[in-house]
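Progress against Task 2.4 (sequence-to-structure conversion) is shown through the following example record, which the project officer requested during the mid-term review.
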Amino acid sequence: MEVTAIQQRDNVSNYQSLRSLFEKNITVNSISEVLDTCNVSDQAQQISDQMVLKDYDVIGIEENGMVIGYVLRDDLGEGTCREYFRSFSPSELVSESTPLLQTLFIFKNTERLFIIEGNRITKVVTLADLQKPPIRMLLFGVISLLEMHLYRIINDYFHEDSWKKHLSDKRIQLAEELFLQRKARNEAIQLCDCLQLCDKRDIVLNEQPLRELLGIESKSKGKDFFKKLEILRNNLAHSQDLNTQNSWNEMITLIKQTENVLEQCEKF
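Structure tokens generated for the chain above:
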């Protein structure tokens, strides 16, 4: 069945609406913690002991009722906190309304962020907070959105299941078995609905015009991208540590690449 230009625009609009949920409605506040503080004249060793008890890595420093900076537990030694406090860098400060997705990308260049509410710095986010459920929901949502776009593109690009030429007989059989199971439950679907992420990957990567449209430079780079994406998705689905095999920077780079592919999908 041929898809009209109006239907295509409607589909893309629906996906963009879903995407805006991740980009605008979920903010940095969903993973932040209240920034505990101490006075700049407090004894550093005493504050260090308190931070150990509370499992704090960072604590704010106040002077005359204003938070003027922070100290790290690993820095503290003898003397007062004044000797160890660090001023806030502009790259460490974000508004409370900063979207969570944007927050993730900012972490590529820092290990902590401080949140400004009004004219006060009140909260903190560290790398450990990237393991929290809102981040997992965000990442799973972004990957799911890519899968939805790939389904739409494959369904629009190929006619009468001609995408089969790019899959092995075993993968086609698995899709057909799932199709029959779902049809038996009276679900209104097509065979294309039963493709897994790995199937969509192979179809797109083996069709050069689609690779070019999605900005994927080569099959090998595309395979590397999708392999990492599947590992991340599986870790999310099974509540595994998000940073078990790769560094945070590599994971954040992967999501940035996914965002780039999504942007190309929206042009299709």
